[in-house]
Amino acid sequence: MRRSARLDRRIQAGAAHLTLAVRDGEQSWGELGARIAEFEARRFVLVTDGTAPPGQLARVRALAGARVPTVLHELRARPLPTDPATGGRADADALPDGTVIAVGGERACAVPAAVRVPTDLAAACGPALTLHRPVPAALAWVRSDLLAAGPAARTRAGLVAVVRHVLAVCPAHRPALAGLLTPGARHDARSLTALLALCADARSALVCFDPDETGPALALGYGRSLAAAVGATVGPALAPGDADALGLLLAAAVAARLGLAARPTGRAHRDLLARNGSATALPAGADLDRLAAAAVATTRPGLLLLADLGRPYCVDGRLLTPVDGAVLRAAAGDLAARADRTERADREERAERPTRPERPDRVTVPHSRAAGTGPVAAPDRGDGRPAAGREQDRTGSPCDRDGRRSTVEIRSGPAGTAAQQKEFPS
Asked: Which residues contact 293 (CB under 8 A, 6 or more apart)?
């Protein structure tokens, strides 16, 4: 991926199109003012959700107000029952008349708007790139340097959206992303711009041929309905972005329970999320029955599941698989059991090494090579079986082996449809 802090992309879906412009530096504000003026509005409605930095919001308001009258509309503070896009449409019904400029996080950017200025990575990778039918042309304008300077917790939460794109759409980028992710979630403007390009290109490849997002483009929402269920039941106990991370892990656990995956994908999910410092298990004491009931309500008429990384499971031309409450409850139990195993391993380590000094400057991440020397949880192949050899210490490839050579399958294109086999000496 080319590393630059500037980026221009165009996403086309039917007659609608969106321009993504990523810029850095204070001089770029003038360009935003000129682009706002191109919409030739009689009045601007500045929509925000309360998450935008005050200085950035004031700057956009000044640019819009210098051209035509501009009114500020703040979305009502309330929990979202489903995904941010649904909540955005509900709020849009009460908007004043005018050309909408959205500034803020996922809720603000989910409102159909002519101009979207996402102020966190999650919004920039997701709702800000969505093409809303009432708006035939839109602009998503991102300051990559301001994203890089934002709180690490918000950056970490946004990186879960990047992980979703890599797992469900473009797994060829998995090694590069794994090398970039760190629990500290500190990335420069160029790295974040490259990740925005990845998400924009993945969306463009899918919605170009699926503008209504009812076919292959459903992969862009992989795990979101399950994340909504997690957020509704155990959300207060989670850090930002962890509900989305657990939604991805639940989707992988469901696919494993149903035997749909050609090979287990849970390990790939856990590895990327652990490297990001995201949750890889449900919090202790989570009500699994309540979670399963919420998941049943949010996953109608079915779930998009992966047969392999970048390859959604499809049967009879349908990408949504109906899943009953028993399977969802069992999948949630798998994540809870993983939390119990991790906690038990930690207790055993403390008992065996009571005098081991703590190292406050070291971050321990479960299931990552950056973890401490003591056991955190038994590594596995993703299907519950223990790993061995180079799979145990994470230095080997998870790909199948043939004799003394490793066979690596590289997928690319929309939803990883193009495959290429390469062999390397063991």
From this structure: 325
